[in-house]
């Protein structure tokens, strides 16, 4: 039996991943700000805001007590804001950088001791070069930074597999924070979860555009 640990497990994509993996018979640890919302899917649910280093550490320690070594680790937390720099507050900038980038570092840092020897880490990124649009400075910078982080990290941990998944539009609550409408051809979170699990089985590393 395989084991996964998912951060941002309460989001549209995170929850679809928990559902897909538990359905496939995996043991799944789910980290989110609202762990009770995952109780219907997995008994292994932990609370952490990725802005809180201690909370992330505590959640990972709790997971370590209960889970076997983690084969597939996924960072699916993220946040978006459309705001021109002239109007963006420092707190708003920090919120987006934390959810998409610094949180990924923190979750990775604390999770390393839990990983199986040849574990696969996946980060949900985005088509970062297409995001260089007015209003999206924080999100675009964070997602570009996430790709750089993952590429450099993969060179530190040669035994691990590392992938940045770059989905197109996915029908999740994230779009309620965007001024744009969800494109008609948007993927379902379930379809993306299928792609991600297939990429795990195929051993896909680097960037994966879906
Ligand atoms: N949807 C798309 O079209 C799309 C496309 C490309 C990439 N992505 C990326 O996919 C990832 C997942 O997004 P989604 O579409 O599933 O959006 P979502 O439904 O809004 O989920 C995002 C999740 O991140 C969590 N989160 C945000 N800030 C957090 C923090 N400080 N601490 C802990 N959790 C935090 C949210 O928690 P709460 O539930 O507690 O708010 C939420 O569960 C994001 O990185 C997003 O950028 C999405």
Q: What is the total tally of β strands?
A: 7
Global morphology? globular
**N/C terminus separation:** 27 Å
Query: What is the N-to-C succession of helices and strands?
Result: EHEEHEHEHEHE
Short description:
The chain is α/β, with parallel strands linked by helices.
Show the helix and strand layout.
Blueprint: E1 3-7, H1 12-23, E2 27-32, E3 44-47, H2 53-66, E4 70-75, H3 90-111, E5 115-124, H4 137-156, E6 161-166, H5 189-202, E7 206-209
Parallel strand pairs: 1-2, 1-4, 2-3, 4-5, 5-6, 6-7
Please explain how this structure is put together.
This protein has one domain (3-209): 3-Layer(aba) Sandwich (Rossmann fold). The chain has a seven-stranded parallel sheet with strand order 3-2-1-4-5-6-7, with helices on both faces. The chain has 210 residues and is of the alpha/beta class. It has helices spanning 12-23, 53-66, 90-111, 137-156, 189-202, and strands spanning 3-7, 27-32, 44-47, 70-75, 115-124, 161-166, 206-209. It is 39% helix and 20% strand. Helix 1 (12-23) crosses helix 5 and helix 2 packs parallel to helix 3 (90-111). It is globular. Strand 1, helix 1 (12-23) and strand 2 (27-32) form a beta-alpha-beta unit. The mean pLDDT is 97. It binds NADP nicotinamide-adenine-dinucleotide phosphate.
Structure keywords:
binds NADP nicotinamide-adenine-dinucleotide phosphate, alpha/beta, 5 helices, Rossmann fold
